[in-house]
Amino acid sequence: MPTFVQILDFVGTFAFAISGIRLASAKRFDWFGAYVVGFATAVGGGTLRDLLLDVTPGWMTDPIYLICTGLALIFVTMFGKHLIHLNNTFFFFDTIGLALFTVVGVGKSLSLGYPFWVAIIMGSMTGAAGGVIRDVFINEIPLIFRKEIYAVACVVGGLVYWVCALAQVDDYICQIACGIVVFLTRILAVKYKICLPTLSGHA
Amino acid sequence: MPTFVQILDFVGTFAFAISGIRLASAKRFDWFGAYVVGFATAVGGGTLRDLLLDVTPGWMTDPIYLICTGLALIFVTMFGKHLIHLNNTFFFFDTIGLALFTVVGVGKSLSLGYPFWVAIIMGSMTGAAGGVIRDVFINEIPLIFRKEIYAVACVVGGLVYWVCALAQVDDYICQIACGIVVFLTRILAVKYKICLPTLSGHA
Amino acid sequence: MPTFVQILDFVGTFAFAISGIRLASAKRFDWFGAYVVGFATAVGGGTLRDLLLDVTPGWMTDPIYLICTGLALIFVTMFGKHLIHLNNTFFFFDTIGLALFTVVGVGKSLSLGYPFWVAIIMGSMTGAAGGVIRDVFINEIPLIFRKEIYAVACVVGGLVYWVCALAQVDDYICQIACGIVVFLTRILAVKYKICLPTLSGHA
């Protein structure tokens, strides 16, 4: 039986892969290209984190991420036209993925002995760097640099984790608090159209 | 005396570097930029593989790859205009490189104790990721995501390696079979214009 | 009290971060995006070097680089319009950063036992790869591949380091000579508009 966290991980990976595959298909990528972009979107953030932390990337130890991306590709291929009606559902799943990946990234870094400020960066990278790699592959300016509260939600969640830990709250509660804050920060930011200001542009 | 494999490695590196340098020159890169793009095309895939496998990248242990890229740059500078007549030759050498790099990548991963499904990904990365880095540097959508059987040939070759190994064929034969299949898959796919389908494009 | 090298490191990091933040602001990135681009410009070269050398990236051991990038962001936000008058100053600081980062990269690689030809590449990467990552993030062809003597100044400085070391000059003197040569090479190249030739462009 998969655990609750494993189910969330699968849902998040699936949603991230879907986002990569849909953007790739909009650029007329072939199946292989779409698969690679979907996979990189799903596991790219965790891979960058693991390279920096000098541990073996998680996807190299369990083929579930490859399989999950394959299912996402089949899903997009079958329901391509109708997926637009599911945008709210994907947004929901994607935000679950963002929250879970942040918690996993922070927790993994702390367990390896890194200080909290490094762990928060690693958590944010786990959540957000896959989308940057996706946008580099499809040759667009990374979306998260220009629009929406996205990686910032990870940073806020990571700070909440830190505050909870400082208050000597049980680690399990810290993680749940972090995940919920990431989730709510993004949902509320999108609902109320909260953005960061852009810079004025004098290069 | 260089071994047969070393000669193939040199030929493949040379062909990969040429491909990077020619595309860089089409974008008006200077000599330095063209050299870097050529080098990244030639060794980028192996470097990404070695970072993921946590071993020292091969080009940092032997200057032959730097020298080979330098020769490729001189070659393109001297024969720039006439290279287009050699396109078939380059395609042939490039495909030799693709086949050899795949075999090397699969073999290295297996010798480090990784399972076959990881080794096949590493083999494909060794062959194909250099071209992705090249295309990111010249600010184009990676060619292998949209056109031609390329990385897919590596995957097919890797699967053949696996099947041979499962059948307890001698490792040396597995490698030759893998290389020949990569080579033929790409040659035949180009000859008969076999492509993967593209996705329908509803982002 | 910070040492002289620490002050140069701070100045160089600040200048590199400013360059990333200004280019990001010209593309209408938000604060977060500009911060990330500035940070990647400042530490990206050293991070790539440390991944290749298999050591923990320097910025993960000391929060000073995060703080320095934050100050650079505040600086650009406050003085955005007027920064253009400081272009010569930034060019000066940026070149100090380039020189110092090269020396640090060469020295770190040598101290880990790598041969000189690897150390020179690592020094040049430390100085120049951050700018490449910056340009990938803002979706432009990397500037250093097309214009100006930049990474080539690092290579020249690295070669001077090598010659000094071969002549059994004290390591401290080697480093100063390397840094001065990088600095002067770039300053003189810009002053006298010295460029590398571009390739003729027949892809």
- Strand percentage of chain A lies at under 5%
| Computed structural class of chain A | mainly alpha
Separate helix tally of chain A:
7
Distance between the termini of chain A: 55 Å
Largest interface: A-B, 34 and 28 residues
Mean pLDDT of chain A: 91
- Radius of gyration of chain A, whole Å: 17 Å
Oligomer description: homotrimer
Task: List low-confidence stretches of chain A.
Answer: none
Biggest sheet record of chain A: none
Number of strands of chain A: 0
Descriptive terms for the model:
homotrimer; 203 residues; mainly alpha; 7 helices; 72% helix; 0% strand
Summarize the structure in short.
By secondary structure, chain A is an all-alpha fold. Chain A has 7 helices and no strands. The longest helix of chain A has 25 residues, at 87-111.
Overall description:
- 3 copies of one chain form a homotrimer.
- Chain A has 203 residues and is mostly helical.
- Helices cover 72% and strands 0% of the residues of chain A.
- Chain A is built from 7 helices and no strands.
- In chain A, helix 2 packs antiparallel against helix 3.
- Chain A is globular, with a radius of gyration of 17 Å.
- Chain A starts with a helix and ends in a 12-residue tail after the last helix.
- The relative contact order of chain A is 0.13.
- The mean pLDDT of chain A is 91.
- At the A-B interface, helix 1, helix 2 and helix 3 of A face helix 5 of B.
